[in-house]
Every structure is written in C-alpha cells, then in structure tokens.
Amino acid sequence: MGNIEGASRINSVERIDLRTDTASNQITLRVADVLDMAGSNWANLNTLDTLGAGGWQNVGAGTSFSASGVKYHQVAIDGTSVDRVNTSGWTLQTTGTVMDANAVVYDVYLAASNAPAMMLVQHDIVRFSVP
Q1: How many helices (H) and strands (E) does the chain have?
Q2: In sequence order, which residues have a C-beta less than 8 Å from that of residue 1 and are 6 or more positions away?
Q3: Do the domain assignments include residue 3?
Q4: Distance between CA atoms of 35 and 45, rounded to whole angstroms?
Q5: What is the number of domains present in the chain?
Q6: Is residue 44 part of a domain?
Q7: d(CA 27, CA 127)
Q8: Domain membership of residue 35 as a residue range
C-alpha cells in the first residue's frame, strides 16, 4: 500500500519470521519491496569466519559481500521446511552461504535486475518461482 510519495507505509523491515506457527506460510517479495522497506547493509558480511555487523558471517565457500562493497537493501527470511519463498526476480548466489549470530544458515539471493537488493533466505525454506 503506497503513500502520496509512492513509497510504502512499511519501512525498516529487515527480518521476516515465518516460523511463528506450525502452518505452512508463503511469501513473495519483489525486488521493489525490498528496496522500499529494508535498510542498507544492516547485515554486513565480512570474510569467511569473521563476524560482520550484527554477528553475520560468510560460511562454506564464502561470499564476496562485505561492508566495503555494494550497499544492499537487505531482508532476512526465517522459516522451516514447510514454509515457501517465491524467488522470482532473484538470483541465487552460488559462491556460498551466510550465517547469523544464532548459527542459522541462509542462502543469498540478489536482484536479477542488478538493483542493490539482497534477500537472505534460511536454508530450510522451500523455494519456488512463478514465471
């Protein structure tokens, strides 16, 4: 829902938790939604095995996202294996995963349009794409 300026009335949303019940939940976030509602680089991702802002770190093969790089609007989505995230408009980064301060592992998605938007999706969540 937009306001007079065209931006949404919702802002400063950096984390969405689908785990709060036992039902299967589904979410679709467009790149424009993340650009509009989420802050930039709240989860600074430093090099492998070193903590960035908020306790986030690269794991596995590591990613190339750091505080000195592109300023991404970021949103993290938490959930379980019964929850679903629509990844249409997003590209999975295959260079590694990231982990938060609670040791929860997330896959990294960037905007397919190269907009400065990042979606961190908990590894257990089911992904689907609608053309």
Answers
A1: 1, 9
A2: 8, 9
A3: no
A4: 18
A5: 1
A6: yes
A7: 10
A8: 15-128
| 98 found inside a domain | yes
Q: Give yes or no for a contact between 76 and 14, defined as CB atoms under 8 angstroms apart.
A: yes
- Say if residues 106 and 122 touch (Cβ distance below 8 Å): yes
- Look at residue 10 and tell me if it is in a domain: no
**pLDDT by 10s per residue, the chain, length 131:** 444 445 555 666 788 999 888 789 999 999 999 998 877 766 766 555 555 556 777 776 655 555 455 678 889 999 999 999 999 999 998 777 888 888 899 998 999 999 999 899 999 999 999 86
pTM over 0.85: no
Q: Starting at the edge strand that comes first in sequence, how are the strands of the sheet with 84-86 ordered? A: 26-28, 84-86, 126-128
User: Residue 131 corresponds to which tokens in the numbers above?
Assistant: 């053309």
Count of other CB atoms within 10 angstroms of residue 65: 25
Other C-beta atoms within 10 Å of 86: how many? 15
